[in-house]
Amino acid sequence: MADGHADIEQVTALLKQAIDDNASDVFLIPGAPVTFKVGETHQPQGERLTPGMAREHIAAIYVLAKRIPHYDEVPHTDDDFSFAIPGIGRFRLNVYYQRNTLAAVLRVIKFGLPDAAASNIPEEVMRCADLKQGLVLVTGPAGNGKSTTLACIVDKINETRCGHIITVEDPIEFVHNHKKSLVSQREIATDVESYELALASALRENPDVIMFGEMRTRSVIEVAMRAAETVFACREEAAALFHMTQPENVVFTMNATHALNIAVHSLVREGMRVAVSGFEHNAVMRPLYASGASILTSDTPLFDSAALIDWFERHLPECDAAVCTCVSNVFGFILPVREIAALCRRHEVPLIVDASQSAGILDLDFPRLGAAFAAMPGHKGLLGPQGTGILLCRDTGMPLLSGGTGGDSRSHFMPETLPERLEAGTHNVCGIAGLRGGVRYIRRRTTQRIYAEEERLMRRLAARLNILPGLRVYYSDKNDQSGVLSVVPENMSCDALSERLGAAGIAVRSGLHCAPLAHDTAGTLQTGTVRLSVSPFNTPREIDRAADVIENILKNSYKL
User: Fold this and answer.
1) Which CATH number fits domain 448-559: 3.90.1150.10, 3.40.50.740, 3.20.20.70, 2.30.30.30?
2) Confidence of residue 2 (pLDDT cuts 50, 70, 90)
3) Is 312:298 a contact under the CB 8 Å cutoff?
4) Exposure of 32 by Cβ count < 10 A (0-12 exposed, 13-18 middle, 19+ buried)?
5) Which candidate, 19, 39, 45, places its Cα nearest to that of 143?
6) 378 phi and psi angles, rounded to 5 deg
7) Does 451 score more than 80 pLDDT?
8) Percentage of the residues of the chain whose pLDDT score is greater than 70
9) Residue ranges per domain, the chain?
10) Contacts of 134 (CB under 8 A, 6+ apart)
């Protein structure tokens, strides 16, 4: 071919020939013929290219790819993009300068997925598809099968488990159809500007698997590491907070209710006798009633720890399991869980602890407690987002849900080991990332400081409200109350007081708070209460304003 405009039809025929010859790459380098790479061999095609011929070949490709309208607009800098020729195939073009002349390498992108066995990929490598978490790196020289290996691993995941797979490539080299998994394939420049942006976005797209075709920069590597480590890192943070040496015994759930259902489902069977405190939430009581168990409920007064300990001591010998909340969600009563746990250990009765109101506020040494399970939400004291929860496990537990776990995909049954046994389906990675942030904050600030601050604010509020006429305040001065205070007005309903506080910009909750048992125990089942909850982020000024507003509401109610 002489210098001048390369014929587009000739270039198209050249690329078609490359596909027909099963070439992986096409080299356009001045001083050498057009060269196909087929397997481990280089196959020259025709005469040597002059610098002008090479430029015109490359210009023709730019026109075919609709990157430029005219031959004379070929960029004078390195360039990299992918394109497709209908009816022929898909290619990736890398343009660069060498010895002051324009050169290029085309990668042929195959539409069909490779076969792992035919590609001689070892079974040990393919078992990477069974991993549920971690970082897998596929490295090696160009043309040695990295993309093929990754495509085979992704395809195996797609065939064997439910989830969301995100691939980020430049360009897309293999197209994956949706099988058991949903597959989102993003191409740099076409779908997203850069690997950095794709990675940052992927963390918000609830992925189970992220596959990056390249890791070119430090920032990309750092984000990839963060994505791979998020779930396990949160597990480690939570284990440290609760004094556990085995992070795998930290199981992620959707919320505390989900966690408590797993715990009850694991321990309680029809006909069993279960001892519970008189302050349990419906998240405990409803699963227990559904189990068909016989429930023994304590009848001890509010803020009477000694009486509660005595009750458990008398009734545990006749029970098969026990459930106790750490803190009443209605009254802030800190129950003597450590003492009750010690009694359970002595009588060999497994204990479920509801730590919904205490996790992140009170210190919970799970191994020392010796409970079978402890359940908690992520969005309360742990400062994480809604839709997250944690179940701490001493025992393995019975799965509440069955499905994909990423481990032992050939088995028809859930794995025997934690955490996979109790974590069916897709992780809420975004939620877990947020939960990790909350747990890290708590570990830095410490539960001791958080509790001290909440107690100080709650006592300040109680001191102001206790002196108000027409208001019953459920307050203890025995250092057994957290940052929760319930009140009942005498001259109006709890709902009316709650509405007026809400109108003033003060967030409270009225009613039974999903804990009718606690209200029955305290004698407020007919009225409910207005619950005021403080946090370490509240200020004394906010506490005083709430007290002022309540005082004014009560004064005005007497004038009516």
Assistant:
1) 3.90.1150.10
2) very low
3) yes
4) middle
5) 39
6) -85, -20
7) yes
8) 94
9) 8-109, 123-216, 234-445, 448-559
10) 228, 232
